[in-house]
Design brief:
This protein is of the alpha+beta class and 655 residues long. It is elongated. The termini are far apart.
Length: 655
Amino acid sequence: MGKLTSFDPLLTKYGGSEEAVISSVKREIRNILNSYVGWYDPFCELIQNSLDAIDKRKEKEEFDGEIHITINLMKNTISVTDNGIGFKESEYMKFLAPNFSFKPDGFRGHKGVGTTYLAYGFNYIQIYTKTPDFKAGGVMKDARSWLDDPSPSDNPKVVEDNENVKDPWFDTIDRGTSMTIQCDSESYPKDLSWMGLDNADSWLKVLRVQTGLGQINKVSDVKVVIEVVDKKERMTHAEKDSPEYLSVIEFLNKVQKVDDINAKMDDLYKKNRFVPGSKMPAKFSNLDAVYDKWNCDEICEKLPLDKEEIELVKKYNVTVIFAYVYSLSVWDKIDKAIGIRKGSHVLYGGIQLAANNMPQGELIQIPLTKNIGRQKQANIVVHFENCSADLGRKGFKKEITDLGKELSRKLMDKPLMKVRTCFKANTGAAPDLRRQMVLSEWKDEMTQHEQECPLKLENSNFFDPVKKIAITSVPTREQDVIALFNQLIAGGVVRGIRIMSTNERTTYDSLFKIVISNNRDVQLFDKTHNPLGVSEDVLDEMLQDKEEIVSGPQVLEYKFSVDGLVEDIDSGLKNTSDIDLVVAWEAGERYRDNFIIESLVVDGNESLRQYHGVTHQLHSANTGEHVCNMILLKDLMMYLNNSEGFEELQESYEQ
């Protein structure tokens, strides 16, 4: 390798060194850096450069393309080496300058800003390259500091590297390029260990989502090798031939393709063995997720598109890859399997736009107008050909973004809505034997306590209606909800519920029994005199000629908001299979992610009430199955007081 003459990358494009010129160049570079806002952006740029270099070499000759990625958490460095085309000497001297590219349209990085970001967004970059005609190894330091220095002594220069190339694999290849950058307190990211990824297999999975390693359509045959050195200097190794975009099927036990589910539904329908909503065969039931990949023609065939949308889908030869999961907990399960920092999702619900065969930019929310909790249950990749993102990795033009949103919305509202009945029920905590035994023992203990130490107070002088409650203000916390509910029971507003136990030390809050008697004045619904009663059909079905029935111990959960229950379920603390009744002040909003609330205090729905006082039912948003009964006290009070806004509140549950 001949001696490299040091050079200023900026002077290869800008002839002057005057202060005004340098100030203008700095402003241009800052604008470029401001367009890179993603934590994985340096990985994206380094990897796409290597993929382009391999593709460019394959235009000239047949060879086995290979990319080596080294992530050193001890030294805070990223090295990406490829055996692609390599740089000519003239290219090597110029490629770091802003908006300077040797790549024609059709390659991933042809805008000429990615290498400028790598060179001036970090304080250390090493660049080695070799071809049959040229070899060089240079390093540039402190460029990021220079950019923020109002009066630097000189521009940063690429000088001959006195150290060895960071990736020794570079010495074994006949031609190619190796780049290494080092993160520090002035760069973004600052610390490569921040994500919690400490092994090569985890990094490979993440980079298949966040970078060009995750090919949307398999077009490049390339071997990828990743080595990771952790904080204790332990090295791990992973490799994969022609990796594609990471799929949920690599993590979940029971999944099916949407097309296969629809084919089975059609087959059963022809045999008169299937109607919408009926249970599918075991292979297609209790699924963790459904997924598929549709090309341009399949999108036009399977989604209800208008003429203009069809033209755009064909213009950009759109492909969609999607996965729809039964619960948001699936994303957490994938994160845990990979080992990434909590809250930094690898895969998550939303729209991922893609172009040049790789994901681009951040997730976009799916614009649903009903059952909006489903927005986070589907990861939809929409890939466009013949277009690219704007400067850096900032985003796409409005036509592309709007089409991606509309395709995703129609996918969610039509095909995916149809197959979600195949999901498993979203119950929360795993129904383990130990949990069931503890709950059963608590029920037995309280039943025995009730028998041995009964509490009674019957006196004709008490419990006559005073026509108002003693609590004077709206609840603000769970304890207020408990107090108000028990007063409503004592006052006969809610009838037929007997509290057995309230215990703050167990997983669940309370045990109760349902008591249904043949006193029809007490039990039967009457819009004026007993608006929380049950219908005559329900009462007759329950009693079946008996004077009274008493249930076994039932589990009651108190919450200020149903959102609190959802948090307990998502965390695995509680299981909806155990809960019979939820008493809360209000519904909240987060429940919409996985549940649907059905109001029983609207005209006509009183026939769905199973026992006195129940105001709502909670259903799984995925399967439609009943989860538990609810008494929402805010709704109950508005209902009984004929409050303004009551009907609008009940209608909001249907949105």
